[in-house]
Structures are given as structure tokens and as C-alpha cells.
Amino acid sequence: MSIDWPRIGYAALTLFIVINYGMIMTALVRKIGARVSGRYGIRIYQNYIDLVKNIALRSKITHGVMYYLGPVFRLTGGVGLLLFVPTIYGSAMWSNFSFAGDLVLALYFVFFGTLGMALGAAESGHPYSAIGITRGLSQVTVAELPLALAVFAISLQYQTLNITDIVAAQQGGIFNWTLFTNPVATLAALFAFVGTMMRSPFDVVIAPQEIPIGPPTEYHSSYLALMQTNRVLFPIAKTVIYMNLFFGGATNWFEFAIKVFAIYMISVLVGVVHPRFRVEQSITFFLKWGLPVGVLAILLV
Amino acid sequence: MFSFQPDRSQYPAPGPDGKLEIDLETGQYLKLWQGPNHPGMTGNMSVELTVCGDEVVEGKTHVGYLHRGFEKLMERRSFIQCFPIVCRICVPEPDFNEYCYAAAVENLAGIEVPEYANWMRTLILEMGRFNSYMMAIGGMSGALGLGVVGQWLTYVRDIMLDRFEELTGARIYHMFILPGGVRGHLPEGFKDRMEEVLKTAERYLADVDKVMFSNAVYKRRTKGVGYIDPKLFEPYGVTGPNARAGGVAKDVRKDAPYLVYDQLDFEVPTETASDIWARTNVRRRDIDVSIDLIRQILKKFPKGGEVMAEIPNVLHWKIPRGETYIKGESSRGEYGYYLVTDGSGYPRRVNVRGPSYTHAMALLELLIPGTNISDVAALMVSLHTYPPEIER
Amino acid sequence: MMQAIYDRLKDRFQLGALDVRSRKGLAFVDLRREFLRPVLTELRDVEGFTHLILLTAVDWIEDERFQLTYLLNNRQKNLDLGLRLRLDRNLAIGETIHDLWPTAATYQRELREMFGIAFPGSPRVDEEFILEGWTDMPPYRRDFDTLAYSQQTHADREGRETSDPREFMKQILYPKD
Amino acid sequence: MKHMDPNFRKDTKTEFPQREELKPRKVTTPDGQVIDIEPLQDYFCQEPPKVHQKSYFKIVEDFYNWCRAESLWILAFGTGCGAIEMRPLMTPRFDAYRYGIQWRATPRQANLLMISGYLSVKTLKRAIRTYEQMQGPKYVVGLGSCTINGGMYWDSYNTIKKLEEYLPVDLYIAGCMPRPEALLAGFMELKKKIKAGNAEGANKYAEKFDWYKANQKAVIKDWDMPDYNW
Question: Which residue is closest to C130 within chain B, CA to CA?
Fold first, then answer.
């Protein structure tokens, strides 16, 4: 097998574009949230400054090897997720490393970061980290259930596990989107989407008033910078999957930007006006509403 | 559908002295300190929790981080010199300290306060109550992760602070109430500007009702959580909105009317559920009462008059031996000053009875066992405690 | 109203004179130590003084006495009654009432720390409450001088100027005196 | 104001007895092992703080300083009454977020410790610990007159007077209490100081570590933690 150098270069470029897009977009989203409260909000380039500031911190401490690896794993989860999913449909340049079974791999990567984080944060030894981790893992596990079921449903529907093929099947008009061909599966997946975006009502993992601020309590300086990078990258990578699976993918960067932003805003708009669930309440919520919808989606296909 | 109620049989039974026998070395329990550096705490205090899983089995309140020894400092200050420091005892609602202390001094010195000053004091106290509730409800929403309500209500509090500034010249510590009366008259056009503030507040509160009080998640988090048995109200000294949420209409404004409250027309809101939801709801409805009271006060406000009674030379002011207790209804419950004089120019002893003293210590320690870690912050905020009142 | 209650209890518990000088609805009465618990129980269960407003102490150092004040409230009749109990200052041991009002335990903890009055049997009474690592005498006692303590602990900033508030106020308020 | 009692002498002889839970002891773990526990030991590191050098290139350091100034993360730790004016800063009226000022809940991620008002000795202990857990470069701002010279509480037995004897203070904001506008102006001053490269409090703390520790231990009588706790 020969190494496809241009492809790696393009993939790296995708990563670069997406990270920058994420930096701007998360700042924009925070600005919108601030406007709801009546504030002016942070500056649009604030995320870059924070990132450099964190890298430039002079002293760091460590709690062990796993503590180092935690943010690395977390970032790997985000990067891996993005790289194995075609970002722009119909373009050889921006299809990254997508292959026949990439949907399964993507589902795996969604979980990978959380697990890595769990190991790292557990080593940091802070009780709030440990509590945050247990909460996070139990909630993510349940929240991903509807997504898994929805993915089964649409892979049955399109008879493929290749994301590119799924996107291809949705081309040609808005009504070919899974959103309209299989609304139940989309609904199930959106439960999972809102549930894993770390926004209220499902942000008990990082709840500042209870366990400030959950798993990353002990992380600082470069570790935190890594996690910040992941925090702008991972939600977008996840949104790209949803966009590809349910909202017809994107054929150019402009469409990509608009769609990702719109999908991302779903969770923001839900989050800004809701208090947070307790962890067992959110688990019950997903089992009660998310799971049946997911099962229904499979049955309907 | 699923029961997440933990199986209590695995936990240790209470020992012979009624305390849980907790052995941290079994690894079954975790000691968790919340505070003093913790966003969920209501100020600089801390709660030492022993948790088993997600459930708290024991909670101890630790206070004293804000202790300045006010009661000691006042013993070496003359009566008038105490005024700058009394308001600093309770930051979010400082005027109550001024009123109670002034009234206690007037009571022992036998000074009659002019009518105008009484109206002014009532106005100031109601404005302070309004502000304090704004912080309480904002804090409640914050504790449950609904930051936007906190943002709105802090803004409303800010515009009310503007009115304070106009009236008294200061934002937080007003020092407006002195023994014998108040420091100034109502400014020109104050009523109209106050009406504007109240209208804005009502607009924001209508939004808060929609976003917070009718939100399903909020109801799920608060209903049935943090229940206080109304039988415990008397033994644990529960007063104010916390008691009103359990159906006991305890309110010093009604029970023992002071200032001009007997000339005002208002109902004390009560609830029956006695949980977090009921306590917050009582506060929400009390804001409406407060707004209404401010309007009534401004309407009936005397056209003019003396703001200050004749008081003796404050530098050589000696008050004969005696003791008194003056109370009032603050936003958290009964607030009182116990003042003892010995005939000299300095108070012999001042004791501040803050409602948080009973709420945050004995009562909170009673309520915490059995709750979820997530609910501790909400529970604390729902009791509306301000730690400076506890340690002074 | 207060007088009627006082008359009912006076002879049974050998109460001192009723002091109603301060304000309407508030009275203070002296009490002998052995009658503290019966009087409190009687007031709480029969006379309707169910609310313990506060429990505090006053240091009468010239009489070598601590005065414990138990303030009770009867909400229905709108009456406040203060019971004054005198303790020997050198042998300050109070009687715990935490079984009558659980909230009294907190007050007793504070009195233990701030006045050094012992309350044997009160829960957690010897734990640190407000102060931490305090080795001096209890700070609310009259013979503890807070200014002297502060000056012996902390130094003032150099160049600090004090203008005597008494002189300043005299100029502003009473220029003629 | 009453006169001072000239005969009063502070009790300097009594030592605070060590707390029961802080004495070394043997503990049986759940799996049957017997281990020695010394609660006063920090198992990770007890070495004193180091002086951290600036970047080799001045232009890099200047850029870093600009970033540090434009991204001040304040620890949400309200030590005194000044904390009440911090809240309006986060909210629509004053909105400090637009200047790159944000609040963090954990000392690890914060750069700026606001001592919001008087410090009682009990809180001073926590403030020192919190400060040492923060990662450098870190800044301390004293809020209110009471951090400068005791302020209102100049004769109180339980509050400290000069904050800079215990922590390296970069900036004081005077007032009792300072208004939000004063706070914003103070932040702007702090930014100028950081951009000029003068806010080296963490290094100062490391250099004069013994002096700071001696001062801290003079008021905290029950010093029951490691000397340096990161």
C-alpha cells in the first residue's frame, strides 16, 4: 500500500479549516448566548487569545502519564472523527479518509474521546473529576443509544455503511434528505445530538454549580489548550456526521458553514432556556423518549 | 419506569447517639468539600459532605470565613460611629441592619421618629427586599444551570441600584438610615423614575415566569426536593419565606407591624408544598408584593416634613442602662438586633439575629442527608442564606 | 397580656421583676438557674412561646457575671419575652437546651467559642465554629481588647494618616461647642 | 472610639494543638493492606516554587504578554463583600466579557485571583492555598480599602491589614466597596501592567518565598498544610 501524500495534505488542510471555523463559530455562538442575556459578549477572536495564553503559561504540573494522555486521546477522538468522515461531498480533495465502513468507525470515535478523557481525568485525582467522569460516561452511553439505533435505521434504509453513499443518496433536492425520508430516525438522532453537546439540559457533567467544572478540573496550560482545541473541533466533527447522515451533506464550504451552524444552533437554542437535568433524570429521559423513537425508526424501516 | 432510589439497607444504620457511623477507611464513602471556593455556594462558606455514590449521607456546614467580629467592634465605637459598620454585616440587603440598629438605639434613648422618615425607611427596606429577591431567584436559576435568568435579574437589580444611588448616593452600602430619621428627602421626579424601573422589572419578570417557572425541567428538578416538615419550623427557628412555603404565614410585617406597614394593604403569599419549588415560588410572588408596596408607598408618601428628629450631641451621647430587641422582616426572615446599653457612650453588647443563622446551620445539616450531590447547591440557594449574617 | 403570663408563672418559678421599659410587646425577666428548664418548657408548651429568637450572652465584667439572654416569641399574641440568667464569670457553665430547640445547639457552640461558656452535652459544642486556630482568650469577653490585639499582630502601613473622627465630626456638626 | 487597653497583651505562648485527623496513623485499606498515612505530607510535590524565566526573544514575550492581558481568567472565589460587585460585571450592565475577562471555577485554570475585600485569617489560609494552586504567570488584585490597610476593620482581631505581606499583589482598587466602573478601570490598569511585562508576581513570590511564608505563619497559628502546595 502506497501512502497517498496529497490526500494527507488535504486532510490536514481540512483539519485546519475546520478548527479555524470552529474557533470563530463557538465564539459567535457564545456571543449569541450573551445577546440573549442582554450582554455584548466576548470578542469574536477571543478563542485564539485564550489558546495562546494557555500555551504560554510558564508552569505546569502533572499527575502522571495518563494525565498527559487524557487530552491527547480526547483530541484524537475529535481529529479521528473528522478525518474519517467526508467533509464535502463530491470532492476528492475534501473526502478525507472515508471508506466503505466509515460509519462504524465514526460511531466508535464519537465515544473514544470521552473514554480517553475518563482515564486522564481519573488520574488527576480530583473528586470532582471522578464524579464528572461517572456522570459523563453514564450519560453519554445512554444518549448515544438513540443515535446508534438511528444509524442502524438509515444504514438499513440506504443499504450501506459508507457515509459518502448515504450522502449521495440524499442529493437532488431538499426532500431527498433523510430528514424528510426518515423523520423518525432523524428525531432519534437529534435526541442524541442535544444530549451529547454538553449544553443544558444535559450538561450535568460539567455543571459549574455542583462539581466545578467536572472532568477538566485539574487541567491547565497546554493540556487545557489541547482540550480547547478539541472543544471547538469535536462538536463540529459530530455535527458533520449528522449533516451527512440526515441533512444531505454539503457540496461546498459555504454550504458546510451554513449547515453546521444551523445544526449546532439546535442544541444552543435548546440549551439557553433550560435548566439542567440531574444525571439520573437525563438517563430516564433518554430511556423514555430517545430509545423508543430509535426503536420505532428501526421498525419503520 | 426505572427506579434510581438507592438501597438504603447497605448504608450504616444510625448509631446509639443518632449519628451515622461512617468509616471513611472502608472506601465506601467519599469526603467532599464544597466551598469556600465553589460557585454553587451562597457566598464564602463551605459544606463538608460525605457521599456514598451520588447520595449525600452527611453534611456539615462550616462558616467563619467572613468573621470580622462586628459585635466586638461595635462595643468600642460610640453609638453614631457604629452606623458605617452595621450595614456591612449583610451585603445584599444592608438597609435592614441600619434600620434595626437605628430603631434599637431610638427605642432605648426614647427618640420619636418623624412620620416622613418612617415612610422613607419603609421605602428603602422594600427596595432592598426587592434587590435581595432578585439575587435569590437569579442564584436559584444559576444553581440549576439556567444562567440567563440570573443575567436578566442582575440587570434589574442594577437599575434598582440606580434608584438607590439617586436617593442615597451609594450603590451597595447606603448608610441612609440614622438614629432619629433618615439622611435626606425624596428627590424631584423620583416617583416617575421608580415607576419606570418597576415597569422594566415587571417585563423581565414576565419573561422569567415563562422561561423558569413554567419550565418542565425546572419543575422536575425542584418539586418534592428539599422538603421541610412544617413541624420542624418552630424547633429549628424557620422564619420568612422558608416558613411561608410550608403554609405558615410567618411575617413580621403582619405579625408585629413596624414602621408604616399597618397603613399599607398587602397579603403575604404562602405555599403548602414546602419544597424548593414552593420556596422559590413564594419569593417570586413576594417580589410582586414588594413592587406593589413600593407603588403604594410612593402614592401615599407625605408631601413634606422633617427627615430627622432632634437628637442630642452625638459625640457625647450616653444612653441609659437598658436592653431591647428590635425585629423586622427581611427577605430571608426575621432579622433582629438585641442591644444592651450600660449608661456609657458605647453599646454594651449588640447581637445580630440573622435568619441565615438558623437556616444554614442546624436546618441545612438536617436537610442535606439523603439528597443528591446535584441538589445540594439548589437546596442551599433555596434556603436563601447569606453567610455574613451567621458569623458577622 | 405579658403581665398575665408573668403573674401565672411568678410564684411557681420565683421570677424576678418584670422589665417592660423598652418597647411594647417586649419584656425581660430575671430567672434563677434551677428554674431555666421548667420555665422554658412551660413557656413553650403552655404559653405558646414556641419560637426561640436568639440565645446570647452579655459580659458584665464589673459584677463578675455573664448574663445569658433567652429571647422567646409568641407569634399569636405578638409577644417577645427575654429570660435573663446570670452565670458566675469564673465558672461559666450553662445548661444546654438543645433538646428543647435543636437550633439552640448552634447558639451554644458560638457562646462556647466567643465567650468561653461551657454547655456540657450540647452536640458538637467543642468543635471550632467561627474562629480557626484561635489560641487567645475568647474574643467577645470584655477584657479582650480587639484594637490592642490587632496592633500587636499587624503593622499599619507606613505613611498612614489618621484624622480623628471625633474632632472632624465636631467641626462639621457642632462648630459652636 | 474607645481607648485601647494598654495592659492587654496578646497570648503568644500558647501553641495550637495539632488536630486529631492530621496526626500520622496507620490505616487498613479495603483490600486488607496496612498503610502509613501522614496527612501533612503532600504526596506529589513539596518543593518550593521556582522562578520561571521569560521567553528568550523579547518579541515572543511581548506577544505572550499581550495574550495574557487580553485573556484574564478570574477565579470565581468571593472572599469578602466585594464579591457582590463582581456579579454585575458578568451581566448586561457592565459585561466584562467583552474585554476578554472571564470567570473560571477552578484555580488551575485561572490567572487572576481577586481578593474581594477583607480577608479573615480563616479565609487567608484558603486564599494562600488557592493562589499556590494557580499556574503562573498569575496575578493578584486586592479589592477595597480593607485589603490596603484594614479599612473599616482596622481594629478587628480577625482580619489582616496589608495583603501584600501575604501574597504578591499587582494592583489595589480602593473604595468601600469599589464600584464596577472602578473595577473595570482597575482591570485596564492591570492589562497595561501585564503588557509592559511588569506583572511578575509569581516570580516575586518564588524569590521572596521565605519572607512570605514567615508572614503567613505569623498570623495563621494552626499551619497544618505543606509549605508549598501546588
Answer: B64
Q: How far apart are CA A73 and CA A75, in angstroms?
A: 5
Q: What is the C-alpha separation between A61 and A58, in angstroms, rounded?
A: 10
Contact residues on chain A for B152, CB-CB shorter than 8 A: 37-38
Average pLDDT, chain A: 80
Residues of B in contact with D155 (CB under 8 A): 73, 76
State which residues form the domain around B32: 8-62
Task: State which residue of chain D sits closest to B81, comparing Cα positions.
Answer: D1
Q: Is it the case that chain A and chain D have 3 or more CB pairs lying under 8 Å apart?
A: yes
User: Rounded to two decimals, what is the model's pTM?
Assistant: 0.88
**Tens place of pLDDT for every residue, chain C, 177 residues?**
778 888 887 778 777 778 877 788 888 888 888 888 888 888 888 888 888 888 889 988 888 888 889 988 888 888 888 888 888 888 888 888 888 888 888 888 888 888 888 888 888 888 888 888 888 888 888 888 888 888 888 887 887 777 777 777 788 878 776
Contact C153 D221 (CB under 8 A): no
Q: How far is C147 from chain D (nearest CA, A)?
A: 5
Count of Cβ atoms closer than 10 Å to residue B207 Cβ = 13
Compare all CA atoms of chain B with the CA of A276 and give the residue at the minimum distance.
Answer: B145
- Is B221's CB within 8 Å of A288's CB? no
* Cβ <8 Å between B158 and D77: no
Rg from Cα positions in chain D: 20
Say yes or no: A40 contacts chain B, CB-CB below 8 A.
no
Domain co-membership, B14 together with B95 = no
What's the complex ipTM?
0.86
Specify if B130 maps to a domain. Answer: yes
State which residues of chain D have pLDDT below 50. Answer: none
Which whole-number Å values give the CA distances from C102 to B376, C45, D92, in the listed order?
A: 22, 15, 43
Select the CATH number that applies to the domain covering D64-217 from these four: 2.60.40.1220, 3.30.1330.30, 1.10.3720.10, 3.40.50.12280: 3.40.50.12280
Angle CA A229–A233–A236, to nearest 5: 155
E strand or H helix at B98 = helix B95-109
pLDDT at B199: 92
